[in-house]
Amino acid sequence: MTSVLTLTRDEARWIAVAAQGLDRRPFRRRATKADLLATIRAIGCVQLDTISVISRTHETVLWSRLGPYDPALIAELYDPDHAITEFWAHAAAIIPIELLPLFRGYMEHRRASDAWRLKPESVEAIERLRGVMRDQGPVSSLDFDAPDEATTHEWDWYGKKPERMALGYMWTHGDAIVRRRDGFRRVFDLPDHIIPGFWDGEAIGREDVQHELAVRAVRALGIATPKWTADYFRSGSPVHLPVADAKRVLPLLEAEGAATRIEVPGIAEPAWIDTGQLERLEDLRAGRMRPTLTTLLSPFDNLTWNRGRGETLWDFHYRIEVYTPAPKRVYGYYSLPILHRGKIVGRLDPSFDRKSRVLTIKSLHLEPWVRPSAALGRAIAGAIADLLRFLGGEPDAWRLLRTNPPEILPLIGTVDADQVQASESGDE
Length: 428
Prior knowledge:
Helix content is 39%, strand content 16%. The protein has 428 residues and is an alpha+beta fold.
């Protein structure tokens, strides 16, 4: 019987953080476009979200790993490079464009299952858009006027423009691809204009798709269970990789040498480590290559988007409070987890004023087990200053209003009385 490798919880955390590129900054220089693409490829996908309290979540995810960079480089990766696009990879997410064929079977399934929803006027809008893209090139919903009539239509939940809903429908079904973004508005084009022959031949078989997604998920997770593997690339319905299939595929990866079976205290279900991380594990056990980075994480960061995984590995209970009424919020509207040397030590609630370029941190909470120290204070202050550099502000242009526990406050920053008063009056 093959022995199972046992890891401590710290070792599992360190591997998980390193697999996500969050153990240390890879270089001192400013990140390039090639660095951004390499990071997106390494972690597989980057979730999108409309909220922009500091920056868009996909921009924050890349900053957490690479430090300050020019967000305009992301636009170039879309177009003219055609190196990235978007799909339902983990909710709506940026993906390397070479991954899109893995989702063609999903597109076909959705085409078949959603066809009954289309009314004649919906079909007409889709055909009209297809013709516009064929004859005139990329389009967005901004290119079309809203209808004048005030009557209710089936797509009004998405806005009054039928073209807006039609473009989203076409994207889900593979009739259109996100070519670029103008600001945060998606611009679509026909698949053949970006990936010639995308719809030629048969789609990749379901088992092959699941195998490839599992390989990429395990590599990005570092430490994986069937539930975590299934969750990494997820879409809602149909599921790309159901948990039952992940349970079947992970032992296959083990047999192929891509994953190694492990046991970790606190992880009840079967678990695996990416075999590519075994050399790093040896270094960690020798006291080398332990995480050194202190940074802030987007609420939608790949490391912690699976809330159950965050609790299992880091004892970190996290819920985004954007939709929680202000009086009932515990940690703030858009709290960012604080990652410090491989551990999640707390969270802070920021707000960036783009006009004054001042960052206000309304509250900062350390986890109950964390002991305040000058070293921790300096590390957190450094992460805040680094975020400000990325946002285009001066490194010291930030205010910290309150902390829990109070004794960490003087170790990180000072209170601005006017800002405290504004915050207490309900200013968001």
